[in-house]
Structure formats: C-alpha cells, structure tokens
Amino acid sequence: MADNFLEKHFEEYEARKAAFLRKKKHLPKIKPHLLERPEDEAL
C-alpha cells in the first residue's frame, strides 16, 4: 500500500465536502408547504 494512502483520500474527501457545502449554500431554501385546513368544519 502506498505511503499516506489514507491521508490523501481524506484530503480529497474534505475537498469534495467543502465544495458540496459551498454549492449547497447557494441553493434556494425549500419552504414547507402549509397544510390547508378546512374552515370550521370540525367545530
């Protein structure tokens, strides 16, 4: 096995993770849909 194999792969993982998080921050936030409730039918 090559020297620093795990360290190299961990650094690549950290770079991919950072890029993903940067991209994620620029995506629009998904707003939860408000449930439509019937007006006073149950009362």
Topology of helices and strands:
Blueprint: H1 5-25
Structural class: mainly alpha
**Net shape:** rod-shaped
Mean pLDDT level: 78
| N-to-C SSE string, H for helix and E for strand | H
Poorly predicted segments: none
Helix fraction, binned, reads 40-55%
Number of strands: 0
- Evaluate the radius of gyration: 23 Å
Major β-sheet profile: none
Distance between the termini: 72 Å
Residue share in β-strands:
under 5%
| Helix count from the secondary structure assignment | 1
Descriptive key words:
1 helix, 43 residues, rod-shaped, 49% helix, mainly alpha
Descriptive overview:
The chain contains 1 helix and no strands. It is mainly α and 43 residues long. It is rod-shaped and about 70 Å long. The N and C termini lie far apart (72 Å). The mean pLDDT is 78.
In a few lines, what is going on in this structure?
This protein has 43 residues and is mostly helical. It has one helix and no strands.
